[in-house]
Amino acid sequence: MRKLKFHEQKLLKKVDFINWSLDNNVHQSKILRKYCIKKREHVALYNKLAAQIWDITKKIRDLKDNNPNKTVLARKLLGKLYDMGVIPTADTLERSDKITASSFCRRRLAVMMVKQQMVQTIEQASNLIEQGHVRVGVELVTDPAFLVTRPLSDLITWTNASKIRQHVLNYNNERDDFEA
């Protein structure tokens, strides 16, 4: 290897090769692949949300025990996170420390469709959502990144005009001839 020139040495002093900023890239790629996320910004946003939740949790935990607002704030935060579906139970603040980007990815519409066994893979679910076959409640959803809260998780269905819905009804012998 040749000897580095002065300006090259000076530039290399400013770069830390041990703690490179893109080290999280491998973990982020795994999440992108596992949950079939097409936009890397979504994972970055989920990471940012998780960090903000950790900060809020730390601030609540740092309040004195005799402060009456501590339990109220903790209960509100845990209630909100539980309603979003990010934590399984709203019992202690330690639950909010375990929130990661994957916690938010598990509440995406495509993943919820796989959990409810509407489709077999997340990729299939993403394609069907983008094609307009899925609705949540009464609204048509065409974004696979739609965050499904606990109350909305029971309202995921096929649209009325969807061919998949017709096939499911035919298979279950529940198709109404009046609708046709």
Shape: flat
Topology order in helix (H) and strand (E) letters: HHHHHHHHEEEH
Order of strands across the biggest sheet?
A: 2-1-3
Q: Separation of termini?
A: 76 Å
Cα gyration radius (Å): 23 Å
Strand residues, percent = under 5%
Describe the overall structure:
Helix content is 52%, strand content 4%. The chain is built from nine helices and three strands; from the N terminus they run ααααααααβββα. The chain has helices at 6-13, 25-34, 40-62, 68-84, 94-97, 101-105, 109-115, 122-131, 163-171; strands spanning 134-136, 139-140, 156-158. The protein has a three-stranded antiparallel beta sheet. α7 crosses α8 (122-131). The longest helix is centred in the first third of the chain and has 23 residues, at 40-62. The protein is flat and about 80 Å long. The mean pLDDT is 90. Residues 3-106 form the Small ribosomal subunit protein uS4 N-terminal domain. One of its GO terms (molecular function) is rRNA binding. InterPro entries: Ribosomal_uS4 (IPR022801), Ribosomal_uS4_N (IPR001912), S4_RNA-bd (IPR002942), S4_RNA-bd_sf (IPR036986). It comes from Acrobeloides nanus.
